[in-house]
Amino acid sequence: GAGVSQTPSNKVTEKGKYVELRCDPISGHTALYWYRQSLGQGPEFLIYFQGTGAADDSGLPNDRFFAVRPEGSVSTLKIQRTERGDSAVYLCASSLTSGLAGTDTQYFGPGTRLTVL
Amino acid sequence: AQKVTQAQTEISVVEKEDVTLDCVYETRDTTYYLFWYKQPPSGELVFLIRRNSFDEQNEISGRYSWNFQKSTSSFNFTITASQVVDSAVYFCALLNTGTASKLTFGTGTRLQVTL
Question: Is B103 in contact with A106 (CB distance < 8 Å)?
Answer without folding.
Answer: yes
